[in-house]
Amino acid sequence: MAVKIYTTPTCPWCMKTKEFLKSKKIPYTEHNVVEDETARTEMIEKSGQMGVPVLDINGKIIVGYDPEEILKALSKTQPAPKKAAKKKAVKKR
Predict the structure, then answer these.
(1) Which of 13, 23, 50, 91 is most buried by a 10 A CB count?
(2) CATH number for 72
(3) Is the CB of residue 31 less than 8 Å from the CB of residue 7?
């Protein structure tokens, strides 16, 4: 699972989003769009705007602090749990 978060150092919603990801033990890569022009351009191309935070979760773009959408995007990237094989009942005679 690849989680990128585009941030600025003074953004309170960016800090809240990072705290949320840490609390859920979700690894992420942070890109500071103030210092990194390439990341800033990438973020604007992906989201169509300049506001932060912007998250890219395996191609799903989420703008702003939205825990519900983050969890929904993460659940779509997790492999489905394998179902246990059902055992056939054997009749005793």
Answers:
(1) 13
(2) 3.40.30.10
(3) yes
